[in-house]
Structures are given as C-alpha cells and as structure tokens.
Amino acid sequence: MGMKEGELPMKYLGVPLSSRKLFKEDYSLLINKICRKIDSWQAMHLSMGGRAQLIRTSIFGVQNFWCSIFPLPKYVIAEVEKRIRTFMWKGTSEFPYHAKVAWDTLCLPFGEGGLGFKDMLKSVSLWQHKKKDKDPWYWKKLLPVRHLICDRYFIVVGNGRLISFWFDNWGSFASVWTLLVLFRCLV
C-alpha cells in the first residue's frame, strides 16, 4: 500500500505516540504549541471578545484533539488552563496576571453570565456522567443506552498474541482491512 513501517516513539499529526505511558516532557509539546499560538496573537492587540473567541475555537480545539487520542493528566490540563487564563486577562502566555473574574464564572454558559468556556478539570466522560435534570437533550438520549455502547466499544486484548489489528472485527464493525478495501473501491 506504499506505507513505511515506523518505530515508536514517534509523532503522528503532531501528537506523540508511544508504547509506554507519556511523561511530563512529552506533554510539553502541547503546552509549547498553545504558547506559540498565544504569542503569535499577542501583537494583534485583541479585545477581550476576540481573545475569548480564539480561546474557544483554536486553543480548545488543540486541547480537544489531544484529548480525543488519550486522556490528559490533570497537571497538563491545569497548565493549559493557566495559560488560557493568562491570555484572557493579560494578552500573553507569560505570568503573572491578575484575574478580573473567577475561572469558574468564565466557564458558565452565556445565559448565566459566563463566556461558555469548558472547565476540563471538572468535565466528565459519558461513562462517568450522572443523570441531571439540566442535562442537554443529547445526554438524556445517550445515558440510557451507554451500556449498549460499552458492550460494543471495549474489547479485551489480553497478551496481544491472538489479536490482529488489521484483520479482526472490532465490535460489530468489519475489520480495518475490509474497511480500507471498501473505501479504496469507493474512491
């Protein structure tokens, strides 16, 4: 198929991939990327609304991309949020800063006086969420069927000798190889 075989550790789409648990220095890529983004915006003399929009779209986008690949440790999330708060109030990624409004307030929805930021330290996944009356409609639809998702989503690999990433069916889906062949036929 024209693909090169690589070795771990490596970077893929800007994210470190490794066969071991990532260490603090591995997450410095994320922190540095966010700081570079903030520093590039520093010269623009943005209003508070402009900064809030960049935080919501760009910085949270990078953070969510990393979170979609693996869970971020709390110390990494805390460091990212510290940089975001500094940028919001000071316009740079450098410390110190003096907040004019508490972070918890900024994380409130617009209708409640906040800026709609997501507090990653307090957020929970689908598997941990406890049902509340104020949940959005999609949570109310997902929560009753999450056990069905879990049954199809998790597969026990064991020691890995009897598992084939390419040719085994994962859940109720076809094998990765079959999907690639089908996709290639459609293109």
TrEMBL record:
Keyword vocabulary terms for this entry: Nucleotidyltransferase, RNA-directed DNA polymerase, Transferase
GO molecular function: RNA-directed DNA polymerase activity
Name of the protein described by the UniProt record: Reverse transcriptase
Source species: Lithospermum erythrorhizon
